[in-house]
Amino acid sequence: MALRTKSRWWGVVLDAPDGPELARFYQRLLGWQIFNEDAEGAALAPSEDAGYNLAFETEAKYVRPVWPSQDDKQQMSMHLDIQVEDLAEAVAYAVGVGAEEASYQPQKTVRVMLDPAGHPFCLYLDPDESG
Fewer CB atoms inside 10 Å of the end CB: C or N, the chain? Predict the structure, then answer.
């Protein structure tokens, strides 16, 4: 049995000190469209009928996570994975639109990046094509 929903849309919501601002970062990064933007947040999807989205909500008490994790510090609760064709080019582009490269990189074919609110996201090569 599967969960039955009233909508074909599903998504992931990230909290941030400024939800609309973080949505605009991911819009630049992914080239997706912003939907339903207001002062408290926004949703982002490849198209209106994509069926999935990333959403961003303003959280007044947001605490930036640290990565890798450290004792007594805010931990990340999830991260996004984004497959890319050229890792160096993707990292340069992500930095150019406002991301930063994390200081610790555990794998050669993956680059851990941090969005402007500190959420980690990984840029990675297809394991079948990375040799």
Answer: N
